[in-house]
Every structure is written in C-alpha cells, then in structure tokens.
Task: structure prediction
Amino acid sequence: MNLADIPKLKHTSANNFFLLAGPCAIEGEEMALRIAEKVVKLTDELKIPYVFKGSFKKANRSRIDSFTGIGDEKALKILQKVSTTFDVPTVTDIHEVEDAAKAAAYVDVLQIPAFLVRQTDLVVAAAQTGKVVNLKKGQFMSPESMQHAVKKVTDSGNDKAWITDRGTMFGYQDMIVDFRGVPTMKQYAPVVLDVTHSLQQPNQSSGVTGGRPEMIETLCRAGIATGVNGLFMETHFDPANAKSDGANMLDLSLLEGLLTRLVRLRETVINL
Result:
C-alpha cells in the first residue's frame, strides 16, 4: 500500500520510517492532547510520517481490576479531537467485530491485537471498513504465518494492511524479537516493529506486566538496521503513573533524542 493514501499523513515523500506513537490507553483529553502536541512537533521537525496511537479501551487485561478505559465513545471522541486539532491520522485497537465499524467512524487505522490476529471475523470486519488494518503478529505465530492474516484483509477487498511484530514468547515471562522475520514479512505487507510491547515481561505473579524500557533504543536501532518500514512505541509524560503498560513505555522527555538519532541511522542505512 502507499502511505500517501492515508488521510492527513504528512512527510510521506521524506523516505523516512513512519511512526505510530502515543499512550497505551486514552486516560483523558488533556493527557492525549499533551502527548500528541509533543510528538507532532518532533515528527514535523524531523519529517517523520506520524500516526497518533491510543487505545479507546483495553480488553485484554490480566486482572479484573485493571484499568480498561474511560468509556468507548468518550475515548473515541478524544482520538477524533487529536486528529482534528493536530491534523494527524490516528490508530486504535479493536477487540470485537462490532468495534470495527464503531472505531472506524473516528480513526484512520484499525489495529488487531496480537492475541486476536487469527480471529477471522474480526480481521474481516476491520478490512470491510476500508481503513488501514494493522495486524499485530501473534506472540505464538511465525513470520511466515502472517501471510494468511494479510490475505484475509486483501480477500475482503482491502489492500491496506500492515504487519506489526511485537515479539515472540520466550518462556513464560519474556519476549524476543527475531529480526529474521522482518524481510520475510515484508514480502506480504509493510512491516512495523512494536518496540515497547516487545520489551514486556508478561505473566508476572502480581498480574501486572513488567518491562525493560532501557532497551527501547537498542530495539529501535536494530529495527531500522534490518529495514522495518515503521516503528511503534508507547510513550507517556509520566510512565510510572500511566494507567496501562507504564512498565515498558518510553518517557516522553526521551523521545526527541531517540528520534533524532534514529533518523540519522536511517539515513546511513539507506545510503549503504
């Protein structure tokens, strides 16, 4: 697919990686706008095509008392306000078939969570909206198997699919990224590396997922070096108090330096 086909996506001719970034979950309007304003400023300066990310609800929590959202319509309207305020596209994840049309009325990219990417009805419902469908590679799936998820989208009459790698389960409480999968999956669709989720440490005895955010730049660099089309990362101005996935998020204050270095690395890689 052509990035230029996505409404409001800027800098598509800059020959840069594209970025999906924002908080794990929409916690409120002020926080979403604050994060978006910062990332939009940086990506405009660095000419990085940018899609604001925020989950309108979190359905795959370990514990019943975990934060799941502020209300579907309220969160979706905040995503819409981010888009209109900063003139950027937005992405959110969906979990049920009926979420597809509901979310598509507010956002530009529908994301299928890794645990659900084999759910045919969900993938087809997302594809039938005509929106870009971002397919997270299941932690239990091979890179080669993702061709079938992409084919479900294209067979539904939609050629706008991405594949996002978010790591593979390594034992019970760790994730690894096999970078051999990048060129394999690029045969099927543009490939995004979800850096922050790849650094999760799931299945902790507390029921709260851990993470290793100190390794974010390492994975970003490896992704750029192996030719990913885009990067995905969750960021927050106060990760320690974020309501979801704070343990593996990037502190927003570190984003400028990271993106600046990654743009330089990208320039080096494409000129080799």
Remarks:
- The chain has a mean pLDDT of 93.
- DSSP finds nine helices and 13 strands in the chain.
- Residues 29-46 form the longest helix (18 residues).
- The domain at 3-270 is CATH 3.20.20.70 (TIM Barrel).
